[in-house]
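Below is how a single chain appears once it has passed through the pipeline. First comes the sequence as given, then the structure the pipeline wrote out for it. We keep one example in the README because the format questions we get most often are answered faster by looking than by reading.
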Amino acid sequence: MKTHILVIEDDQDINNLVTMNLKAMHLDVTSCDDGQEGLDKALASAFDLIVLDLMLPNLDGLEICRRLRANEVYTPILMLTARDSEADRVIGLEMGADDYLTKPFSIREFQARVKALLRRVALLKESPAEEILSFHDLEINVGQRIVTLASAPIELTTTEFDLLTYMARRPGHAFSRTQLLDGVWGYQHSGYEHTVNSHINRLRNKLEIDLDQPQRIKTVWGVGYKFVEA
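Resulting structure:
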């Protein structure tokens, strides 16, 4: 089966450019230019990736992210936006976007981000169904993509799950932000370390009891982060 991408972008020039280049990558593409229509399509059909503009008529990209995750649709989302502030990026990630690309962007970088996200989707499908990582009251079922803490399920986005699993497979190892970007997101770009920081903060919010003294995901000053068997 071919990989199917949903593009939700109201700027017709960008929509056409993105669609044309995705098709050049031999991907099936469904596109629309309206937020509500895009949400309806995303809820009605299974896609491998959603390319989502932030500013859309009828329903903006942040609200689409929020509603998809609320409906347990964890399709990877690559958000496109003309807004370049760190606050906007963090909000997009907190709403459930997996990656963030600021307009104007190069087609090469866009294609690299798409390939990285699709590689992660492919790796997920290949994960051994029986692989389970257990750490006292925290359990990560890699094959089923289920995380439980004290027997209670924890809802994680695609990227949050991938980041947690990547670190938990090597407990105690200190990862730099660059290593995490490369290993989880599949690319290395200076200036995108904030993406790692945002996802670490979101994981801590879901896994830690005391955010001032995290016990599972610790900061290694001058290096990055490590997962600890709490």
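The longest strand covers residues 4-8.

See the next section for the split statistics.
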